[in-house]
Amino acid sequence: MPKEISKREEMRELAKTLEYHSRLYYELDSPEIEDEEYDKLFRRLVDLERENPELADPNSPTQRVGGKVSERFEKVKHEVPMDSFCDIFSEEELFEFVEKIKKEYPEADFTVERKFDGLSVSLEYENGELVRGLTRGDGVFGEDVTENIKTIRNVPLKLNRDIGKLIVRGEVYMPRRVFAKLNEKREENGEKTFANPRNAAAGSLRQLDSRLCAARGLQMFVFNLQSAPEMPDRHTESLTLLKELGFTVSEGSRLCRNANEVAEAVRAIGEERPKLPYDTDGAVIKVDLLTLREQLGSTAAAPRWAIAYKFPAEIAETKLLDIEIQVGRTGVLTPRAALEPVRLAGSTVSYATLHNIDFIRERDIRIGDTVRLRKAGDIIPEIISVVEEKRSPNALPFEMPERCPSCNERVFREEGEAAVRCINPDCPRQLCRSIIHFVSRGAMNIDNLGESVVEQFINEGLISSAADLYYIKKEDIARLDRLGEKSAENIIAAIEKSKQAGLEKLLCGLGIRHIGEKTAQTLASRFGNIFALAEADEETLLTVDDIGKESAAAVVGFFKSESVKRLVERLVEAGVSVESKEKPLGSSLEGKTVVVTGTLPTLKRAEAEALIRAHGGNASGSVSKKTSFVLCGSDAGSKLTKAQALGIPVVNEEEFLKMIAD
């Protein structure tokens, strides 16, 4: 018994410590510990929960990583309707709104808050714990995105104290730096970029797989107390209460007594916009006294006690001096506009993204044109149009180069794709980015090898491929600027440790097109080692769940390359493991495709899927005619219905465990 109590206490302390450091990192941007130390604490909690599932807290920080995959989002009626505000666009309208209320209610005062440009949601708490998260939807019905909401780091899963059933409203948003990195990665991969952080946040929150949402780095501000057993008298008091309960509340709120003070507060928000780490597209003006809000009431469309002041988008004109071509990690050639420097949204802009050749053609952008610029999400400069009346008669339509500007190899554009690519794996421009990807946390996870160190290794001639990392000598690193003996020891130790990362991580690190972390794990589990995978043809690959024609073709094409064959040989010679870490336990499910649905009595979904793969089967996320059987638990949804309609066998956990034991 004492042992159980100590385990429970350790788990509680770990959870408390992880939440504390998570808040410092994600909300306050002032971490106290290194990522490695945080990860060590996190892994310890994961291990304890796995060993002691009966002691696991459903509100544990480990739940933030996601893992549930939804068929669809259920529509749920809001207990408190989520009205939208009327928009105004001038100070004249602002004065009219305030003075009209002051004329009838002289005692009225107002709060002025930043209007966040994200996705509005409501959160419901019972017994101090998060039970539901809904999108705004049409204001009456919203979509249940609870599992995705739980992955947002600054959303409290458990409140600091229980004050009864609580409903709050807030805005889910994507920080600008996260948005910039996300689009940079998508552009490198030849994927369509998001137009702005709001679209990125909305798309992330509506991912059916909560793990994808968890990876997007979303945040949330709570700006309204919708319902509570005892409501405060004023909105400003409710914000104080929400903060005490553990919410990140609306920042920069100002209490104003008259129209002049309101206008001054709105101007201040407009001036601070460029300096904020997230998007704001206006200011919200609300009556502070809640009883007065009730008296003012609402129209059919919006409340009479609040209004939204929208800031105009800032646009600048400048001259396009040249169109440069950048080569990304995956070989995508991305055009970039070199501009005559111009001041825009608080900074000087000299370059703007042009995305791809289709983007250029749609807007008929030519070198020498005068162009109109704006900042997508107030952060990434982009050209929105050409000032045609200022165009030179000699300006010619732009065409992408036929050869890579880095290695002079011919470039290709696949049918149906916007991206133009260089497929030469020895292309110098791709080298640095590909090695940075190879050593990243999601791939081989080699600590202490940041971008600047990788660039230094390349510039000094120490490496010209990922395999060279495993042949580098400590003394060669120690003589480099800003490194030294201790840094060299740490880097060599991290490189040595990565040799045992396994095939799953290696495949991800190799940067094969269309092969991300999840698909790399699937392939590693199915083929067991890199040689079996390299010999597989497209037909064989297509029998693997979640592998489509493009992915299969990409894998076959990758391993046909002579330079890739040399790379694999050198990795093997250096002692890098090319075997899957998921060791086969048997072959009882060989050739079978299994779908897991519902809540199993003892196994988590990930554990069940790992067992399926370990016994030679394919763990699929969707039911089809290829499905061999469905492993079903309680609260199963449409997957079970579809399986029954197709006549596919359904087994429970006990039958499944007997099947693999036999």
Task: Please tell me about this protein's structure.
By secondary structure, the protein is α+β, with helices and mostly antiparallel strands. The protein contains 24 helices and 22 strands. Helix 22 links the parallel strand 19 (about 595) and strand 20. The radius of gyration is 28 Å and the shape is globular.
Blueprint of the fold:
Elements (H helix, E strand, L loop, with lengths): L1 H25 L8 H17 L23 E3 L9 E2 L2 H14 L5 E7 L2 E8 L2 E7 L5 E3 L2 H4 L16 E8 L2 H13 L8 H9 L4 H5 L4 E9 L7 H11 L8 E3 L2 H14 L7 E8 L2 H7 L9 E5 L5 E12 L4 E13 L2 E7 L3 H7 L6 E7 L3 E7 L24 E2 L7 E3 L5 H12 L11 H9 L14 H5 L6 H14 L4 H7 L7 H11 L2 H6 L2 H4 L7 H12 L1 H12 L19 E5 L7 H10 L3 E3 L8 E4 L5 H9 L3 E2 L1 H9 L1
Parallel strand pairs: 2-11, 19-20, 19-21, 21-22
Antiparallel strand pairs: 1-6, 3-9, 3-10, 4-5, 4-7, 7-8, 10-11, 12-13, 12-15, 13-14, 13-18, 15-16, 17-18
Give a short synopsis of this structure:
This protein is α+β, with helices and mostly antiparallel strands. It folds into 6 domains: 2-65, Helix Hairpins (Orthogonal Bundle); 77-179 and 196-310, D-amino Acid Aminotransferase, Chain A, domain 1, CATH 3.30.470.30; 316-412, Nucleic acid-binding proteins (OB fold (Dihydrolipoamide Acetyltransferase, E2P), Beta Barrel), CATH 2.40.50.140; 428-498, 5' to 3' exonuclease, C-terminal subdomain (DNA polymerase, domain 1); 503-573, DNA polymerase, domain 1 (Orthogonal Bundle), CATH 1.10.150; 593-661, Rossmann fold (3-Layer(aba) Sandwich), CATH 3.40.50.10190.
